[in-house]
Amino acid sequence: MKILTISDIESPYYYEFYSAGKLKGFDLILACGDLKPSYLEFLVTMAGCPLYYVHGNHDESYPREPEGCVCIDDRIVVFRGIRILGLGGSYRYRNGCYMYTEGQMRRRIRRLWLPLRWHRGFDILLTHAPAKGLHDLDSLPHRGFACFLTLLEKYQPRFFVHGHVHREYGVSIPQKSSFGNTTVINAWDHCVIECEEPSVIR
């Protein structure tokens, strides 16, 4: 399965300099937040595949939810056997609709105990913010959540896809890294990943 992951800026390659066929072959688009609804609608129309998204910390001013796209905040969705858990928002550094303290994010995760048990975990964790110590920064606005590490350690998903930390902030900010058996993706701008579909029914 070919998946386009996006976050934070409207990728010039897929938007401003788009040409016919660039989005051909994608099976799924995962958006990590802080993107204009019109951009998400453009991608889902041109790609002709589902688009799942979570909110970023700047999405509180959304004039509307993007048409043809599915918000998976605080949900687990299954696409062709791939279980995707969505947890949008950033670390709380001011009052904001999609900003959370560590305790608030932990409580969001705790409320998902039944879906997590029903689905026997998840394959992709889709967030806006990074995890603590994984692609995050020292500044409060870009601090990662420690409770995301707990999720990764317990369920060992194939991918952890986040945004929020712009790679233009510094040359040392990675796009990909590993945490145990999980590939960690910073989807700022865009990143393409391949994910094998399950061969057996869980």
Explain this structure.
This protein has one domain: Purple Acid Phosphatase, chain A, domain 2 (4-Layer Sandwich), CATH 3.60.21.10. It is globular and about 45 Å long. The two termini are 18 Å apart. The strands form three sheets. A six-stranded mixed beta sheet has the order 5-6-9-10-12-11, covered by helices on one side. It has a five-stranded mixed beta sheet with strand order 4-3-2-1-13, covered by helices on one side. Strands 7-8 form a two-stranded parallel sheet. The longest helix is centred in the first third of the chain and has 11 residues. The protein is an alpha/beta fold. The protein has four helices and 13 strands.
Number of distinct helices = 4
What is the number of independent domains? Answer: 1
- Beta-strand proportion: 25-35%
The helix content, as a percent range, equals 10-25%
Which series of helices and strands comes N to C? EEHEEEEEEHHEHEEEE
Strand-pairing-aware structural class: alpha/beta
Unreliable runs, pLDDT <50, ≥5 residues? none
Please give the CATH architecture. Answer: 4-Layer Sandwich
Task: Please report the first level of CATH classification, the CATH class.
Answer: Alpha Beta
Tell me which oligomeric state these chains represent: single chain
Radius of gyration: 16 Å
- Output the CATH homologous superfamily: Metallo-dependent phosphatases
Give the biggest beta sheet. 6 strands, mixed
Mean pLDDT: 92
Strand order of the largest sheet: 5-6-9-10-12-11
